[in-house]
Amino acid sequence: MRHTDMMIQKMKNSPKIKDNSGKSYYATSDKEADRLEVEKAKLAGDNNQNFSAKSLAVVEEIRGPKSKMTVEGGIAVKMVNNTSAVSSKGYIVCADENTDFAVILATQDKSNPIGVFYEGGVPNGEEAWVVVNGIADVYFSDSVTRGQWARGFITGDTDYVAGQAIAQDVEVIPADDRDFPIYYGDVDVFKYFKIGYALESRSSPGLARCILHFT
């Protein structure tokens, strides 16, 4: 079999996407190290043509070496898991202050979380996908109701587990304080631990889909 025929066959057995004109394109494989290859009518021609389209419908996910858009609708980046344990899906992480491009679990009173682990089972010291925006599954320590805040734990919260989220009703800023640039009530405190809003409800501990929105 000629090399060009082998390439065509490889593409046709791979995930397929379409542009807005209906033309089909194929990825050489679903491995992260492989780049998108475009099906061409004549592979004997210029195999280095640039791929472009006004719009693109993707069946699964768009990814690069260090970032991707997940099938759930989140934006994820690769960070080193420096939690001293395997990653747990949906657990909240913060930037590691002692290691470049690494994350640690959000602990009680640890402010400014940056995302949640996209998947579990990634060993300590290896790169893991962390969802930093958009839609993601977040692990809650207890029940959650859609529309509630998702945030990390602070002093006084019960059922604390490192990395897990707690649900809280959305606070309403008193009318008398709305004209000030900073509100010094509980809202101002909680915002440093908030990671987003719940999009679905569950009555027990576990994963619930959220829209991540960091203050």
Automatic annotation (TrEMBL):
Source organism, top-level taxon: Bacteria
Region (Disordered): 1-29
Protein name: Uncharacterized protein
Species of provenance: Sporomusa ovata
